[in-house]
Amino acid sequence: MTTTLTRGPARAEAARTGNPPPGGAWRRALTRNLRAHAFLIGALLCFALFTWYPMVREIVMSFQKVRYGETHWVGFDNFRQIFADPEFWPAWQHTLEFTGIALFFGFVAPFVSAIVINEFRHAQSYLRILVYLPVMLPPVAGILLFKYFMDPGYGLFNQILEALHLPTSSWLASQDTAMLSLVIVSTWANMGSATLVYLAALQSIPGELYEAAELDGAGLLRRIWHVTVPQTRLILSLMLMLQVVATMQMFTESFVLTGGGPQGSTTTVVYLLYNYAFSYDKFNTAAALGVVLLLVLGAFSAVYLWLERRGGEE
Amino acid sequence: MSKEARSGATRTLISPVRLNQPAGRRTYRIVLVLTLVMATIVFIGPLYWMATGGFKSPQELVRTPPTLFPESPGTHAFTEAWDRLGMAQLLLNTVVYAGGALLLQLVFCVAAAYSLSKLRPVFGNVILGMMLASMMIPAAALVIPQYLTVLDLPLVHWNLMNTPWVIWLPTVANAFNIFLLKRFFDSIPDELLDAASIDGAGPVRVLWSVVLPLSRPILGVVSIFGLVAVWKDFLWPLITVPAHETLNVGVNTAATSMPQNTLIAGLFLASLPTIVLFLVFQRNIMAGLTAGSLKG
């Protein structure tokens, strides 16, 4: 067998002395590569089946339609159809609304808690466990739990607000507050991971920087703004991008908590996509919407990377 | 970890001198206590409400003002939730999905990362690049073609719907795992592997007895991510395994048709496994998370 030529010792010998062992270099390279690819094959197949092929298929599908079991090319028909759908623009608006509010809370809350937790010399691990605990819950459990808190009648939130003599809210029942309510649930459930990432970043900031800033007379807020933020800028901006991409795909919260309502006010793009495919059985239209989502988020990522690179050069 | 060292030596936002003054010490204590109380209420409070809610009667559950302790605690809601949700089955399904996904990920992602890092096949970099590029694709956007693919697998025409494979196989296509593993394997010196080769070990032996023992921390990280991802997923199991629901999907399906205290008890039961897992392994999970997330 040819493998005898390329077994470990021979290769190691070659690596040490720089002299290839006798035998066909070509065949050795071939067997070496075959073996290396044998290790790759499992992952490669899975990527091909579940990432690369669906990617191509989605684009192809978006230009096709199935009529009476036969597939036809229809050009941009599917796209025209989704753009003409009265739910299309509202869905984007709701998605952006969620992303906007979610960033406001989901970006600030973990950063602030990380800064505060980082200052404590006690109970740090307790606090870390605490913020991370909701992340481990099955999302549906956390979401349904908050459904009870947000009940306009007997819900805990309104009772607390009442006890504090603050105006109560109709939470999920009203178009005005439904999206905000979803953000609250989502932030509670997910802020733990970002907090831990920021904590790790904060702990790598050299103390001398704070020392120097303080000597220059910088107060607490200015120290945060001029030392903490720039020192964690890379990780902050990376997390910002990840959060935008993640929140733009919000589905579970809407599906479980509001079913897209009230009056469609929490129907997001992915929810619309789900509806096309699994409620109306229009897979090609859903694929076209998927392509639009891909393009939008792809463009966002590209702009982000461009800005990031330009920022690095300056 | 480095907690002790840190609190002693390195300074943070607020200087140790300021903290050691009487005023500083007082402020520190007040802020610490306030934060602890607030954080406990915000993060444990809902869980406490959920845990005790199951012991209450439906009437007590919706009473205003709410009761802090169940008046006449009964476990009826828990047993009923267990039965009506088919909790044993849901749990079993989820464990099978998560466990199998973890196993396949460990085998295939480790093998792939080892190949890309140490065996260096031709086109290795192109393949890695294509894998990493997939991280830029929003998962939800690909759900439709993925769904159609598992309905009728290309070439072999298998229908994977309602089989565990439909959950297991896509989890292997995880570029982040392969990237993390490859980076870790890159840091293992080639000399060590060559030494094993000289002793006559083939690539599988080298991987098994040299690389893997050195990679325990990163294998831990990948395992945790793998388990939790399957445990938390919703949309994919919702559409692909309707006959063998996960905990997440099953609880949601049953939510509308159950008495409230039963559902709350069910939520608690559904949350218990991961909470226990987390509390038992929290040290490893925390260390793993920071190791995994600091990839930038």
UniProtKB/TrEMBL annotation, chain A:
InterPro entries with a match to the protein in the record: ABC_transporter_permease, MetI-like, MetI-like_sf
Coiled-coil regions, chain positions: none
Location within or outside the cell: Cell membrane
Record-annotated ABC transmembrane type-1 domain positions: 92-304
Entry keyword annotation includes Transport: yes
Principal localisation: membrane
Residues passing through the membrane, by range: 36-55, 98-117, 129-149, 178-201, 232-251, 286-307
Region annotation (Disordered) ranges: 1-23
Cited CDD domains: TM_PBP2
Bilayer disposition of the protein: Multi-pass membrane protein
Source organism superkingdom: Bacteria
SUPFAM superfamilies recorded: MetI-like
Membership in a protein family: Belongs to the binding-protein-dependent transport system permease family.
Protein name, per record: Sugar ABC transporter permease
Organism this protein belongs to: Kitasatospora terrestris
TrEMBL record, chain B:
Organism from which the protein derives: Kitasatospora terrestris
Family that this chain belongs to: Belongs to the binding-protein-dependent transport system permease family.
PANTHER family: ABC TRANSPORTER PERMEASE PROTEIN MG189-RELATED, ABC TRANSPORTER PERMEASE PROTEIN MG189-RELATED-RELATED
Domain of life: Bacteria
KW Transmembrane helix (keyword) present: yes
Topological category with respect to the lipid bilayer: Multi-pass membrane protein
Location(s) in or outside the cell: Cell membrane
Transmembrane domains' residue ranges: 28-51, 95-114, 126-145, 165-185, 206-231, 263-281
Name of the protein described by the UniProt record: Carbohydrate ABC transporter permease
Location of the ABC transmembrane type-1 domain: 91-281
InterPro entries assigned: MetI-like (IPR000515), MetI-like_sf (IPR035906)
Keyword terms of this UniProt record: Cell membrane, Membrane, Transmembrane, Transmembrane helix, Transport
